Amino acid sequence: MPIGLESWTLARPEIFLAAVTALLLLYGVLRGETSAAFVSVATTVALLVTAVLIFTPYREGTAFSSLFIVDRLTATMKVLMLIGAAITIPMSRAYFERVKVWRFEYPIVVSLAALGMMLMISANDLMSLYVGLELQSLSLYVIAAFQRDSIRSTEAGIKYFVLGSVASGMLLFGASLIYGFCGGTAFVQISRALLEGKAGEIGVIVGLVFVVAGLAFKIAAVPFHMWTPDVYEGSPTPVTAFFAVAPKIAALSLTISVLMGPFKPLFPQWQQIIVVVSVLSMALGAFAALRQPNIKRLMAYSSIGNVGYILLGVAAGSEKGIQSVVFYLGIYLVMTLGSFAVILLMKRRDMMVEQVNDLAGLGRTHPMLAFAMMVFMFSLAGIPPLAGFWAKLYVFMAAIEAKLFWPAVLGVLASVVASYYYLRIVKVMYFDEPAEALDASAFGVNRAIAFVAAVIVAAFSLAPQPLSLVAAAAAKGLFP
Q1: Which one of 32, 132, 159, 403 is separated from 58 by 20 to 30 angstroms, measured CA to CA?
Q2: Is-contact 221 281, C-beta < 8 A?
Q3: Which DSSP symbol is given to 183?
Q4: What DSSP letter does each residue of 36-96 carry, written as one string?
Q5: Is there a domain that residue 217 lies in?
Q6: Burial class (CB in 10 A: 0-12, 13-18, 19+), 265
Q7: Does residue 45 sit within a domain?
Q8: Residue 405 falls within a domain, yes or no?
Q9: What is the DSSP secondary-structure string of 318-374?
């Protein structure tokens, strides 16, 4: 079947990003290591321009024989992901320059990962889903081990690759079962087959379980979270910041598209799985981080807990539930980038430090930085009136509306437990005596990101409507 102009128009942002990435790769190869600064700036601009292209002009529809779909939800998730990816590139420069591995390949690989995530988000077929997922995954394996002289970074890359390969195999096996029993890989074909009576086939249920398991690995949900603490701790800190936002947004968007699209007829079956995964993730995220001394590892468990809250909105299976997910992800993006911007400023004698105790006395030595970190920790703990409180409130309200009373109650309890380790960081910053102050840092990219994010999180209660309206519009497309 010939591919019409409409298909190319709908995929305009992806085509633009792929073309720019290819040109920048060629430029980097020809110019060598001196091109790193230009390539990083150009890639950041390209990612932001791609985000603008998604909505100017905005179009909906399917492309490439229904392999690719654009709607309000996919467009919104792409923009959130691209903003996260774009911000992490300038955040990375000072770190990689200090360890002498700042090379033009890094922003190129981040851009390729973002391209894979865009294809994932717009997947409308199990085959295009897998292609996008693997493009993203292969790029992430590379940047996890980007600091090649570091044993920890290399180990993180290998662990991520091995466990990620197993998860990809599980997803592919599940997809093959679904294809065998439903007679097609397109989401429309699968949905039609389920509505015509295939929903009762045990093979379809087993296939769905394997697909959900593969997706749970990508979003770091229990019990497929095992890679997260080690990879977060071992990867270079800017890479960890990237992992914490962009891939999570893309994988959660894909999870919604799969469960609320072709598998919506199996809602009673998959809701049980998602509720269990959500509760376990919230519980593990709350309890496992209580005694974590390493702040990157602590943030890994925090991300697992946040995924649990987000999945509670997915489990609701309602328009309000999906709205709460998009709303939560928008706030989570700002909180997480701000937190990692502060973590990237944790240096002593020009060496990065990662222990929670290294923040001791920050309130006296670097009061503005400590205040920003306090805002992020209070927000992640869900303390009103900060943005994180509204994110959790939206999710719990959606769960209660869907009669998921016990999961919502357990989520609130998990949030209370998790508050301990967030507040412990505040206590260390303001009440512990510093053994040695952190290095003073000039007002650079990371300080700017930390302060801007802190202002957004702190002032969010004054104007929550714009994000709420965007989330409502994104969710509405799934419930015509």
Answers
A1: 132
A2: yes
A3: S
A4: HHHHHHHHHHHHHHHHHHHHTT---EEETTTTEEE-HHHHHHHHHHHHHHHHHHHHHHHHH
A5: no
A6: middle
A7: no
A8: yes
A9: SHHHHHHHHHHHHHHHHHHHHHHHHHTT-EETTEE--BGGGGTTHHHHSHHHHHHHH
User: pLDDT digit of tens for each residue in the chain (480 aa)?
Assistant: 456 677 788 889 999 999 999 999 999 999 887 888 899 999 999 999 999 999 887 788 888 888 888 889 999 999 999 999 999 999 988 888 888 888 889 999 999 999 999 999 998 889 999 999 999 999 999 998 888 888 888 888 888 888 888 889 999 999 999 988 888 888 888 888 888 876 567 888 889 899 999 999 989 898 888 888 888 888 888 999 999 999 999 999 999 999 988 888 888 888 889 999 999 999 999 998 888 888 999 999 999 999 999 999 999 888 899 999 999 999 999 999 999 999 988 888 777 788 888 888 888 888 898 899 999 999 999 888 899 999 999 999 999 999 989 999 999 999 999 999 899 999 998 888 876 777 767 668 889 999 999 999 999 888 888 889 999 998 887 776
Q: Which residues neighbour 276 within 8 Å (Cβ) at sequence distance 6 or greater?
A: none
Angstrom distance (rounded) from CA 198 to CA 155 = 44
CA-CA-CA-CA torsion for 79, 388, 230, 280, nearest 10 degrees? -110
Q: Please state, in angstroms and rounded to a whole number, the distance separating the CA atoms of residues 193 and 376.
A: 46
CA dihedral 50, 338, 133, 231 (to 10 degrees): 150
Rounded Cα distance between 128 and 70, Å, is: 14
CB neighbours of 25 closer than 8 A, spacing ≥ 6? Answer: 108
For residue 122, the surrounding DSSP H or E stretch is none
Lookup result for tokens 């990809």: 168
Query: Range of 328's domain?
Result: 264-480
Kindly tell me the burial class for residue 281, based on how many C-beta atoms sit within 10 Å of its own C-beta (0-12, 13-18, 19 or more): buried
Q: What is the DSSP-derived secondary structure letter of residue 184?
A: -
d(C-alpha 103, C-alpha 32), whole Å: 9
Q: Domain count of the chain?
A: 1
Which residues 6+ apart lie within 8 Å of 460 measured at CB? 331, 386, 387, 390
Token output for 338 = 């701000």
Asked if the structure places residue 359 within a domain, the reply is: yes
